[in-house]
Design goal:
251 residues; TIM Barrel; binds phosphoenolpyruvate
């Protein structure tokens, strides 16, 4: 059984103080939720405040990225070990905004993923096609390239802590959600591909989140799909009420 996993990606939003304010309102709204895993990935500087404020709760904190080197002359970077030692559980890797604005490629995703795993973080690896790619009919090819490139060289055992997030770029922050059927089709494709790349066991056990304008009013239909195991959420994770409504999708 794959436990549903709802994670918030706060992107470049919220100071440490604002993050602390959020978590104080949010925790009581999700207190006692045991059947859904909950994660929040704030900007780096808000991580210590969120880790401290969520200690002992059912909410795990993560980063939005990590560098592949452990230390050295890499100005501006933060390593997976540093993120882990700050108390993070998760690391989002290869988000489409990083691919689009910061030159992330399948090769860098792969390096970052290996570093995150070595540090003991639970990676959330993002994949997904642009609008032009969908309209050209190459959605599956793009997702296959992202998965084969991003997960290259991994052993089946290393897949245990990895979550895949299918995020069609055209649905991120646009208010356009993939229909549950469109999302399910790609999720099923990705799961079959994981079987081909690893094994039937890995394919059956790996959680695949959907991301792209997930909101309280569409989450239930998305989560009802066989191969959708959770959501990676941007905008709707910024307010305690809406993020709690997503976490409580099955209530
Ligand atoms: C995201 O940033 O991963 C995302 C899915 O954003 P939004 O929910 O705002 O579309």
């Amino acid at each position: 059984m794959r436990k549903p996993f709802i994670a918030g990606n706060w992107k470049l939003n919220k100071t440490a103080d604002e993050a602390e304010e959020f978590i104080k309102s949010f925790l009581p709204l999700v207190q006692g939720v045991k059947d859904v895993e909950i994660g929040i990935a704030p900007q780096y500087l808000a991580i210590p405040a969120l880790v401290a404020a969520s200690r002992g709760s059912n909410v795990g904190i993560g980063s939005q990225d990590n560098y592949w080197e452990a230390s050295g002359a890499f100005t501006g970077e933060v390593s997976a070990e540093m993120i882990k030692s700050a108390g993070c559980i998760y690391a989002i890797i290869g988000h489409s905004e990083r691919r689009q604005f910061f030159g992330e490629t399948n090769a860098t995703v792969n390096q970052k993923l290996k570093a995150a795993l070595a540090a003991g973080l639970h990676p959330i690896v993002c994949i997904g096609e642009s609008l032009a790619e969908r309209e050209s009919g190459i959605t599956e090819k793009v997702c296959e390239d992202h998965l084969r490139g991003g997960l290259a060289g991994l052993e089946s055992a290393q897949m245990q802590t990895i979550t895949i997030a299918y995020e069609p770029v055209w649905a991120i922050g646009t208010g356009k959600t993939a229909t549950p059927e469109q999302a399910q089709e790609v999720h099923a494709f990705c799961r079959n591909l994981l079987e081909d790349m690893f094994s039937a066991e890995v394919a059956a056990a790996t959680r695949i989140q959907y991301g792209g304008s997930v909101k309280p009013d569409n989450v239930k239909d998305l989560m009802a799909q066989t191969d959708i195991d959770g959501a990676l959420v941007g905008g709707a994770s910024l307010k305690p009420d809406s993020f709690a409504a997503l976490v409580n999708f099955n209530k």
